[in-house]
Each structure stands twice: as structure tokens, then as C-alpha cells.
Fold these 2 entries.
Entry 1:
Amino acid sequence: MNIAMDVSIMAQCRTGTEEYTEGLVWGLSRIGVSIIGIGKQRSAILPDRPCLGIAARPKRSLWEKFWWERWGIRGAVRSDIDLIHIPYMTHPPSPFKIPSVVTVHDLIPFRLEQYQARLRERAYFSQVRKNLAQASHVVAISEATFTDMQGLMPNLVSKVTVIPNGIHPMYFVKAPAADVERVVRRLGLERHPRILYAGGYDFRKNVATLVQAAEVVLERHDGELVLVGGLGQPAVERRVISSRIADRIVLTPWLSRADLAALYHASDLFAYPSLYEGFGMPPAQALAANIPVIASDIPAVRETVEGAGVLVEPRAVDAWVEGLTRVIESPQLAQHLVQAGTERAAQLAWDRIAARYRELYEQLVSR
């Protein structure tokens, strides 16, 4: 099979969707599936681009995005291509001549009112919803996303397959001590327990709740909180500055994958207070990196962690205080979580996940 992958988004910086696309291409190449990248990037294999100190995802112009998704992608599909995979939620308004697969990561634009404020977003995602019906098949990255689709896009349910995200192999390997020391020194880290968060800072990530809980926990334990993500979110930055433990909170922009992996290995536990996710890539990475995970008890994260973490009500500060304290004060619990996390993460290795995509591709091409 010759599989075309839309890698136009890979000209941008690496966040969740880019991490997924790169990992899928890597996994497919490991199991012998030929991938042809189409789009601005020309190559499906993306270098590790961290976006240090700048916006997390510099966007193409709306016109450029609109043109590519409706017309440009069609002209890029060569005659020898057997199937086209669009690894994010879009599709042209009519079918391709070959099978097409679209990945739906989440239904944030349809479920959360804050993402529907502007008319152009509402108009764009209205077209997205309509055009998805033209895809030959849809992959939902979690049962949680599939459940959302059952309620919001019931017309697509018959052609949806659930395949979870994978985890990049770098997170499974213990970072060299020199790399860990370099990252720790560069960020000025010096205390334990070290609580790590990695992800976005928009409202649904609920970082303020974590900061509030950490104030209580770290007043009892002389540790520090490390927040990794795209800067430029004044509400989060103000909350950090006004915190009673501001001198023990490190706020850093996106890191390279190598530095983030080293930081996971330099931390004592990982906290993820998100209110809504389609999967939860950072907790999965933390499982692979062998650190205990404390996360929100929401459907997608519950599914991702699958019993290998402490789950708490996302908005309940007291529950976060209790959960963080339990892990910090119980080495036995921490070790249990590490062991369970290692077993769960192994199920999400990209070459293992990619085999499920290969099976899906073969089914669609052979029809």
C-alpha cells in the first residue's frame, strides 16, 4: 500500500496533534508501511521542534488553511496513492476517489461554549461537521471521544473505529544523567518533592486548581511545582505570581521532547488537572517515564491511565491536596503506581498502535 498522510500541520510547532501525527508515521514506518507526506512540510518525519519562548502553535492564515482543506489536498494526492489519512478533524466537501481516513481527537469546538464565541469559528466547524460525512472512515482516539461523537455526530457512528494514541519511544528510555542534570540546572530546580505539569494553559486545563492545591501541599513539604506549556496566558501567570509559593513555582515554555523526557525523569510525580480531553497525552508520557500520575477523573484521562494513576475530581482543591499528599507520603503507593504505569504504557507503544492502523488501512483498500 501507498498511504498518503496530510502533514501540512507539521510546518507548525509540535503540540498534541503534531505529536500524534509524527508518532503514527514513526510507528507505521517501523512495521513496514510506506508513508508519503503531503502538504507544506514535504516530509512526514518531523524534527523535534519545541517552540521555545513563542506561541505554542503559530497558525497558517485562515485562507491558507481553508484552501488546503477544500482544494489543495486534492491536488496533492498522486495517482499511485491507495489511501489518504488526514490526522486531524477535517475533510474536503466531497469524497476522494480513494479511501480516506480522518482522525477525530476530541469534540472541543462542539462541546465547550468558550470555543464557539466567534462567528467564523462557528461557521468553520459547522462545515467540518458536515464534511466529515464524506470520509470513508473515522478514527476516534478514545472511547470518550467516540461517546461524544455518538451524541453530537450520530450519522458517523457506523464508520468509526477507536484506536488510542501512542507514546513516543523516547519517554520509555531513562534519560541520561547528564541530560537530566542539564535540564534541572537550566530551569533552576533544586527542591523535592518535584511536582510536574505539562500541557496547555487555557481554561479547560484547569491549572489554577493545581496551583491552589500545590500551595497547601508544598507548605507542608519543601518541594516545587514545575509548569511546562505555552506561555502568554496572563490568567495563569498572574495566578503564579500571586501564589504564596511563587518562589517555588517554575513556569517555563514548551521544551524539546528530549528536555521534557529528562524533566519527567527528574520529577517525583506528575499532575494533570484538565477538565476535558480527547485522550491525555502528557499523563500517558508520564506513565512511560515511570513517575506516579495524579490526574482528573474525567472519561478520556480515566481511559488513558486505566487504573495506573490516582484520579481525583478536577475542580475539588481538597481532593487534589489529598491525592498529592498520599503519593508524596507513601513510597509504597508511588512504587505501585510506577509499576502499573509501566504495564499500561507498554500497551500504548507506537509500533503496537500502528499495527491497528495498518489493519484498518488494509481493510479499506481491499474493499
Note: The chain has two domains: 2-166+349-365, 169-346.
Entry 2:
Amino acid sequence: MIGFDLGSEAGRERARLAMENFGIAFFESNVATGQVVVTPNAFSMFGLPAPPGMPVDRTGFWECYHPEDLESARATFAADLRGERNRDIYCERVRIIRQTDRAIRHIEFLGRMFGPPGARTHIVGMLRDVTDVAEAEERRSLLVREVNHRANNTLSVVQALLRLTDAADVPDYKRRLEGRILSLARTQTLLDQAARHPAAFALLIASELAAYRDHLTLEVDEVPDLVPNAVQPVAMILYEMATNAAKHGALAAATGEVRIEARCEGAAVVLRWAERGGAPLAAPPARKGTGMAVIQSQIRRLGGTQALDWTPEGLRAELRFPMASWAGPAADAQPKP
């Protein structure tokens, strides 16, 4: 076998170290027969039972591919066999469904194809589980998108401040506007502190909605402090709702107002958001924007629910969060009035 029957004791030891310490599996695939010889750890990677002998049919591995990746993976494999990418290296990353626990894993292949394009005979190479790397890349990509989205929203907030700030003369306007912008600059510091400790809901409103404080009416009825894990999701919900109101709702007008109520009802914390005083709303939004998607994802993150009503006066929303997600399991165990 040309793939990993390495012959020398040193070669075998290198292969053993690669398999045990780096999770690398080795394979040799016969293109003509569809048979493959692999090291035993490849079967564990796919959650397949180890066979009594080699070679085995390649189909068993293909059947583990994630349905969303299978067609493109087969097309890439066939294109490489035909030489359409002008290379003898086969390199691919796919998702599989591990058969033992149905977990989605990311597997990376790297190999050398032998034989001329269109008449390949063998592929020899290695594969490894790169799920941790792939998930880290996805988290970084999501973070970049969230940062860009928040930066764009901040510009919208500043535009709203220009519209909402009312003053008798230019010096007064300048003073009021600078004060609001400085309050925005303090917001992230307050949130960073709150994210490490329990936070009062009033503090969250003060930090996230400071720019709109002259246009808010608050009614907070003994709502418990948020546990650290709930601080960021609730802050993002408030921020996105305020930004949406500044773009399209009541906070887009100097006369606009938002009423926020927060109270405990049974085993839930209920937030009610009601806009008024803006331009009359002719109809609900035709499509769900990024901001609303963020709101809904953070509500789901806390196991909450939402009810939205787009009235002519503006958005009315009722958000419900389990007490255990908001204030922790201990608060949920307390008797409710």
C-alpha cells in the first residue's frame, strides 16, 4: 500500500505520533474501485464501527456527509478527478454528521492525486477533525458582522440625536448634543462592568438609552437584577429597539416618545415597549431587517417570547423572559406574588 505503510520504524513512529497527538488519520483511495484503506481513527472520527479488515467501500463515509454539503463535495471531488482546478492536490473541508451522537463535525481532507487528469488511479492523504477551528472562524465572522452592524447603527443614533435635540440657540444646541454624544461614549464602559456582575435594569436603560432619555417614560416595578449572562442580550434588545425607533419609529421625530414598562408576572419578567408621537405608521415593515433579527435571536437566547403589534402610532411590543434566565435559578425558586 503506497499511502501509509511507511516501511521503516521511524516512519511508523511518525505516523503514530500524528494520529495520537494531532488527531490525523491517513487514507489511500482507489479511484477505479471506490475502495479505501484508512487508519482506524478515521472510523472514530465519523462515528462508524471499525471493520474487520481493509479495504472498505468509500460509500460509508459519503453517507455521513451533511446533506447541505454532500452535493457540492461530490462536485468538487469529481472536478478534481477531471483536473478542472489544474492541480494534483485534493483539499476540501466538509461537515459530517457523526453517527454515534449525531453531532455536526468539520472534517478537512488533504491528499495527493496520482494519475493524469481524467484517469486518476489513487488518492493518498490525511484527514482531521477541525471543528474547533471552524467554529472559532464562524465566531470571528459573526463578531465582525455584529461590530459592523453596531457601527452602522451608531451612525443612525447620532443622526437621531441631531433630529431630536431641541434648543433655543446654537450654543444651547451644541451643549445638549455634546452631552448626549458623551453619554453614548460612556455606554460601553457601563456595559462592560455590568457584564461581569449582576446589573439593575435601570442601569441598563441608563447606559443603552441615555441618548433618548428626554423621550422616554419608564415604569419599572421591582424587577430583579439581571445575572451577568443576561446583561448583554437585554442590552442588545434595548439598543436595537431604540435604534429601530430612531430610524423608522417614534424616535425619528422630535415629538416622539417611548414608554417602557418592566414588571414581574408570575415566573417571568415582562417588558412592554410602546411608541407614540412619531409619524403615523401606514403598515408593518415589509421585511425583517438585521436589527429585528438581532432582537429575536437575543430573545431566543434567554428562552423568551415576543408579541409585536405595529399600530399607526408605532411599535407596541411585549417581551417575556423566564425568571431563571433573567435573575438566575435562585430567583425563580422564590415564591411569586
Note: The chain has a mean pLDDT of 81.
